[in-house]
C-alpha cells in the first residue's frame, strides 16, 4: 500500500497545481478551462529543456514561461477581442493537444509518452527518520520538491484567500467586477 500511496500523491501534483490555478481564476470571476493547454505546453517544453540541458530547474523555468505565454495569448484574445472565455479555453486545449501530438509524431516518431534520453527527473527529498515508518514513510519521504510545493500551497492559498487583503480583493472582484 505504501508504493500505491506514494504514486497517488506524486500523480496528484499536476492536477492539484491546475486545480489551484483554476480556483484562483474562478474566485476572481474567470472560468479558465484552458489550464490543460498551459500544462501540456509546459510539460513538452520542460521535457525538451531537461533533455537538452540536463537541468531540472531550467526545465521548470521554461515550463512556467511557456505556460505563462499560452495564458497570456488566451488573455489577450479574451480581453482584446472580447471572445468568450469558454470557447477560447476549449479552443486552446484542443489546439495545443493537437500541436503537441503532431510534434511528437513528426519530430520524434512517438505518440503518447515521450521520454528522451538525458531528461533529468526532479530530485526526491528524503526524510531519513520517516523512511522506516511503513505507510507514512512511503507517503511523505522521497517526494519531489514540486509535490511538496503543491501540497503546501493548499493551506497557504486557503489562508491567503480568507485572511489577506489580496484574497478579499480577489473575492470582491469575482463577486462584482464593477
List its salient traits.
76% helix, mainly alpha, 8 helices, 178 residues
Textual characterization of the structure:
The protein has 8 helices and no strands. With 178 residues, the chain is mostly helical. The longest helix has 26 residues. The chain is flat. The termini are far apart. The model has no long low-confidence stretch (mean pLDDT 91).
Describe what is shown at a glance.
The chain has 178 residues and is an all-alpha fold. 76% of the residues lie in helices and 0% in strands.
Task: Show the helix and strand layout.
Layout: H1 2-27, H2 35-53, H3 56-80, H4 85-108, H5 128-131, H6 134-140, H7 145-163, H8 165-175
Helix pairs in contact: 1-6, 1-7, 2-3, 2-4, 3-4, 7-8
Secondary-structure element order, as H and E?
Answer: HHHHHHHH
**Could you report the average pLDDT, rounded to the nearest whole number?**
91
Q: How far do the termini sit from each other?
A: 51 Å
Count of strand segments: 0
Main sheet summary:
none
Share of β-strand residues: under 5%
Spans of at least 5 consecutive residues with low confidence: none
What general form does the structure show? flat
